Amino acid sequence: LHTPMYFFLSNLSLVDICVTSNTVPKMLWNIQTQSKVITYEGCITQMYFFILFAVLDNFILTVMAYDRFVAICHPLHYMVIMNPRLCGLLVLVSWVIGAMVSLLHSLMALRLSFCSDLEIPHFFCELNQVVQLACSDNFLNNIVIYFSAVLLCGGPLSGILYSYSKIISSIRGIPSAHGKYKAFSTCASHLSVVSLFYGTVLGVYLSSAASQSSHSSATASVMYTVVTPMLNPFIYSLRN
């Protein structure tokens, strides 16, 4: 199990556990007690950790795509390129970027002023919902949210698509059908997880933009905060 793929997979599992631990216990407590109250400090803390782990999820999936690209397109140099130092550095950079982005959004949310007794139309403190409820000007916050969303989703997604375009091109060059199947099977689990992650995230925000209903947005958000992290272990366990 001491290979780059399982090192990245262990980090992905940790992040998935943290994502659900950040939102689900509070949601279950609200259902149990029939009380949906959260303090201002608690809301900012939950928002910080959710952004941190969401960004981490995104970057670790991208790193795993690069790992599959090297394994299939440069198999003879795989252990030289994907050495423990590089693997550790890639994960460390992912954590640093996630921490910086979540800190930026949290500090920008702290500069906003809010009226008392606000009701967030969501089951957790989602950044966009919190910013929209501010009594002060939130134009700068919205600009930063949209800019970072394009940068942090578009960049990693472009890297994943580029990696898989090279992987498909390399697989097509393999003469035997068995060789093609063997090469594709090594990245099938990762491709499933990536499709599930980006599919649910895009589905949530496209549906919420179309319907403008906070209830439907909250319901759809359960997909990427609860369902996706729950399915990831099943996908990789079946492969193993």
Textual characterization of the structure:
There is one protein chain. With 240 residues, the protein is mostly helical. It has a single domain (4-183), classed as Rhopdopsin 7-helix transmembrane proteins, CATH 1.20.1070.10. Helix content is 82%, strand content 0%. It is built from eight helices and no strands. The chain has helices spanning 4-33, 40-73, 78-81, 84-110, 127-132, 139-172, 177-211, 214-239. The longest helix has 35 residues, at 177-211. The radius of gyration is 20 Å and the shape is elongated.
Features:
single chain, 240 residues, GPCR_Rhodpsn_7TM, mainly alpha, sensory transduction
Kindly state the mean pLDDT as a whole number?
86
Rg calculated over all Cα atoms? 20 Å
What's the CATH H-level homologous superfamily?
Rhodopsin 7-helix transmembrane proteins
Unreliable sequence segments? none
Secondary-structure class:
mainly alpha
Under CATH at level 1, the class stands as: Mainly Alpha
Shape: elongated
What is the helical fraction, as a range of percent? over 70%
The CATH topology turns out to be Rhopdopsin 7-helix transmembrane proteins
| Percentage of residues in strands | under 5%
| Quaternary structure | single chain
